[in-house]
Automatic annotation (TrEMBL):
This protein's UniProt keywords: Zinc
A GO biological process held by the record: glycoside metabolic process
Zinc keyword on record: yes
Protein name, per record: N-acetyl-1-D-myo-inositol-2-amino-2-deoxy-alpha-D-glucopyranoside deacetylase
InterPro entries the UniProt entry points to: GlcNAc_PI_deacetylase-related, LmbE-like_dom_sf
GO molecular function: hydrolase activity, acting on carbon-nitrogen (but not peptide) bonds, in linear amides
Species classification: Bacteria, Bacillati, Actinomycetota, Actinomycetes, Micrococcales
Acyltransferase recorded as keyword: no
Organism (species): Ornithinimicrobium ciconiae
Superkingdom of the organism of origin: Bacteria
Pfam families reported in the protein's UniProt record: PIG-L
Length: 290
């Protein structure tokens, strides 16, 4: 049985989630963020880029794809999503600019033109990003830090870089100030249950693909024994859905089933199951603690 993500009986927890692009915070850790806000904990999100290279779903916003205006637009989406979750937010940057703009930009997928940009986050020196983040963590003093596993969830270069930077930042803190560090992971049994739910409930002919039980999983789906902690709170799904609705360039929420589900620009249906799995990381190495 997975443990609760964090318990401090005598005061509210301080939780920080570090993410690569706007919308990642709600897709990957939105349930935990909503759950901890509802508990009265202090929740803070740090975003590393504006997601300038993201694909755009709605036809009426298609003109933003590949346009410099997409980054600021996604920043506004992020502001609205944070208001829905009740979380505080800033960017990986210095001084007052951390409130409006990150130091680096979206790198796109590996091999893209964006990956060669001089400000691409994936190509930034890890120690520079870690220094900025460690400074911020030293002020926020979190009990828990949430981010991606070594594979960045699904292999995006900015997600992998976010993992590296976050691990290095936590390791750089004095031991007395170090938070517990967690990566988002999904137990294989949960992933199979989610696909079975989608196959049963997603209507045919709505233009989405429902992945089959034998289709490959992303790297963040792992053996159940590797997932040591969890947030299970179906009541928090409504806040997660409300926040996802504020990211319309990236996420489509559908309600033609017994519970809301979503799709990204790949048109693959995905469930919002009211649970998230985590594993604690060694801040010295970034490896899973067993």
């Amino acid at each position: 049985m997975a443990e609760a993500l964090g318990e401090v009986p005598d005061r509210p927890l301080r939780v920080v989630a570090v993410h690569a692009h706007p919308d990642d915070e709600t897709l990957a850790t939105g349930l935990a963020l909503a759950h901890h806000v509802a508990r009265g904990d202090r929740v803070h999100v740090i975003t590393c880029t504006l997601g300038e290279e993201g694909e755009v779903i709605p036809i009426e916003l298609a003109h933003l794809e590949g346009d410099p205006a997409l980054g600021p637009h996604r920043a506004r989406e992020l502001d609205a999503a944070m208001a829905r979750l009740g979380a505080e937010h800033d960017y990986l940057a210095t001084g007052s600019s951390r409130l409006t703009k990150p130091r680096w930009r979206d790198s796109g997928m590996a091999g893209s033109d964006a990956a060669a940009h001089p400000l691409a986050f994936a190509g930034a020196p890890v120690d520079q990003g870690a220094e900025l983040l460690a400074e911020r963590l030293g002020i926020l003093l979190p009990d828990l830090v949430l981010t991606y596993d070594q594979e960045g969830g699904y292999g995006h270069p900015d997600h992998i870089q976010t993992h590296r930077v976050t691990v290095a930042a936590v390791a750089a803190l004095p031991e007395r100030l170090r938070p517990r560090l967690f990566a988002v992971l999904t137990p294989r049994s949960w992933a199979l249950e989610d696909r079975a739910w989608l196959a049963e409930h997603v209507p045919a002919g709505n233009g989405l693909t429902v992945p089959g039980g034998e289709d490959p999983f992303p790297p963040s789906v792992v053996d159940d024994t590797l997932v040591t902690h969890a947030v299970e709170d179906p009541a928090a799904v409504s806040a997660q859905v409300a926040a996802l609705r504020e990211h319309p360039t990236q996420v489509t929420i559908l309600e033609d089933a017994p519970a809301p589900y979503y799709a990204l620009s790949n048109d693959i249906a995905a469930r919002l199951p009211g649970r998230e799995g985590y594993a604690e990381l060694d801040p010295e190495t970034g490896a899973l603690l067993r």
